[in-house]
């Protein structure tokens, strides 16, 4: 009753700036196009044989409501005999869709499943329709800062004064430059599913590239930006992820099923963990979740050859790297850049990390293990450790 879980494939839509590229496009339509694109490029997966479809969104109302897992599955033309459900763990929604389905596969209950995530932050601004219980503040369960992600990032700067704004800006610049370099040699485009879009001003078009990257970024430019979350703060639009629209999806399977059907194997799941921290410093969550996931895998941080860390904020990545004694510019980290450049449509990002790691595995057969990790609002972190199927000892 126990199976190894593998990643067969993962794709995503181009990420747009909130309410810009996808201004006239519904969230569920972006998700549907990504699901179709994923199945089109994996013809050996018979849609009838999919055991479940789990789709995440942080805001589950309107075009992200109606049990988005079931509704996008039907809209994508997946047979109605295939069930679907919705997942929410805010930014780690798609990551949780992956780990939840992986549990079912590992237990031998599912052979093949689809995970995904979508967020249209243009249609659903962060906090939209949220009604935090007044007890949070009245009983001082959390400080007001815990409910504003940018403020939690400022708190991390307070906690770690040696991780300066200059270091955050330098990290952010590197993310932009790595993304630009990856775009230059077509390393991002190959996994983007083009999406039909409609703009009120421009009419119909096709989204084929991320809208957020700023390859012209300079340190001087970053230094001069406003600090919207605190006067004389350190977090800016340049060293934070933006507000974005986009969707991701992945096929997971048991190793036996993948081999039986002759499916490609892009990564093998080793372990995963979620953990909690003080909500006021939610960006620190990846530290305990990574310690936990490493422990479950029986691995040490030195065993990890590639890291995909979600860049909600530069300071939050730096605090993770600093904890583990990894340099700010370590070449194993986010080799194609990250969310500071391409964006972070909340619940979708977990699969973008896995997608990048799987591609990095192909380029690095000398690496046996990699990890994907991200921070999560209200004080959590999630980490998934993967094994490289292309690993060759001594490569
Ligand atoms: C930081 C934040 C408030 C900025 O808001 P925004 O509307 O996206 O900001 P913009 O893209 O308009 O950028 C603001 C300014 O910075 C400039 N800027 C942004 N990135 C830049 C860069 N890399 N180099 C130079 N200038 C840059 C813009 O040009 C703009 O300048 P302007 O005001 O002169 O037009 C917003 O992106 C945010 O809240 N990010 C965090 C998202 C988040 O919390 N996610 C969840 C994580 S847990």
Fold blueprint:
Layout: E1 5-12, E2 16-17, H1 27-40, E3 52-56, H2 68-75, E4 84-87, H3 93-106, E5 112-120, H4 135-138, H5 149-159, H6 165-184, E6 195-199, E7 203-207, H7 219-223, E8 244-254, H8 255-261, E9 267-276, H9 286-297, E10 304-309, H10 314-323, H11 339-342, H12 349-363, E11 369-376, E12 380-387
Parallel strand pairs: 3-4, 3-5, 10-11
Antiparallel strand pairs: 1-8, 1-9, 2-8, 5-8, 6-7, 9-12, 11-12
Bound molecules: coenzyme A.
Number of strands: 12
* Distinct bound molecules: coenzyme A
Give the integer mean of the pLDDT values: 97
**CATH topology title of one domain:** Peroxisomal Thiolase, Chain A, domain 1
Unreliable residue stretches? none
Computed CA radius of gyration, to the nearest angstrom: 20 Å
Task: Report on the architecture of this protein.
The chain is built from twelve helices and twelve strands. The mean pLDDT is 97. It has 395 residues and is an alpha+beta fold. Helix 1 crosses helix 2. Strands 1, 2, 3, 4, 5, 8, 9, 10, 11 and 12 form a ten-stranded mixed beta sheet that branches. The chain has a two-stranded antiparallel ribbon with strand order 6-7. It has a domain at 5-125 and 243-387: Thiolase/Chalcone synthase (Peroxisomal Thiolase, Chain A, domain 1), CATH 3.40.47.10. The site of coenzyme A (COA) has 18 residues, from helix 5 and helix 7.
Write a concise keyword list for the protein shown above.
395 residues, alpha+beta, Peroxisomal Thiolase, Chain A, domain 1, 10-stranded mixed β-sheet, two-stranded antiparallel ribbon, 12 helices, 12 strands, 21% strand, binds coenzyme A
